[in-house]
Write a structure and sequence with these properties.
Elements: H1 10-22, H2 27-30, H3 55-58, H4 62-94, H5 104-129, H6 149-174, H7 182-216, H8 221-238, H9 242-247, H10 253-262, H11 264-284
Helix pairs in contact: 1-7, 4-5, 4-6, 5-7, 6-7, 6-8, 6-11, 8-11
The structure holds fe (ii) ion (2 copies).
Amino acid sequence: MAVREIEPILLELDRLEQLAESGYYNPYTMFDWPEAIEPDKPWMSESLTTLAGTPMWDELTREQQIALTRYEAINFFSLNIHGIRELLSEVVLRIHERTYANVSEFLHHFIGEENEHMWFFAQFCLRYGGKLYPAQPSLQADSVAHLSPVAREMIIFARILIFEEIVDYYNSHMATDQALPDIAREINRIHHQDESRHVAFGRMVFTSLLGQVAKRDPGELPAVAEYLENYLQYSIGTLYNPAAYRDAGIPDALALRRRALEHPARVAAHDQVLKRTRNFLAKSGVSRDLIK
Ligand SMILES: [Fe+2]
Ligand SMILES: [Fe+2]
């Protein structure tokens, strides 16, 4: 059975389209890019680094701590760039398919905005960090390859939504962190503004596709729930980049990554980051309780 048309909530879709139009800005002129960033300022909120709350953070010199905020900011923005490129290629393929006829107007805004996000994230990385980190290996989808076309379609939009929600947790916090340099705070703030629309839209598309899956064969839902839970964990893992530890001058990067990922303070921090998304998935009917 083909994937049927997305049925958006029309009032909500109208509202999102209007906001995209009225909030439209020129990304190429709106930021003030300083020549250099003040040497003592963190580029990422200290409480959001991957060692926050652990003795491993306390063991660093102040210089290493600041370096870690910088390289983890470059890693976070690099993850954004790679994530955007992936989601753009999926959305571009679908924009004029029948399934998306009802939402293609918003998808035009979405594509335009994401291209701009990719631009300002890359500007930051290249100007101040001199590089992007390469894309990390993506999560295999073998476990869901046997599912129906509509379930696989839904998973593509779920991945986009999960990516955007996790990023937004970080953006919304850093949007108001006065310890950050203005340019870092501004990028996070502007991105958070656009992403609040994308998340609302993504939830709508996801819910509509999930409705089709549940109606067709609810027996597919446990495999979907398991894949999405793995995707949440995978996404958290990408924030712990050994290359960033090495660049910050911290030895034993791989062992440090393992220790940090398992540390109870970090496990609690991950639950905090993922709480909103897990609650939404559970409410939608793909709770991780379904996993056998
Ligand atoms: Fe974005
Ligand atoms: Fe987005």
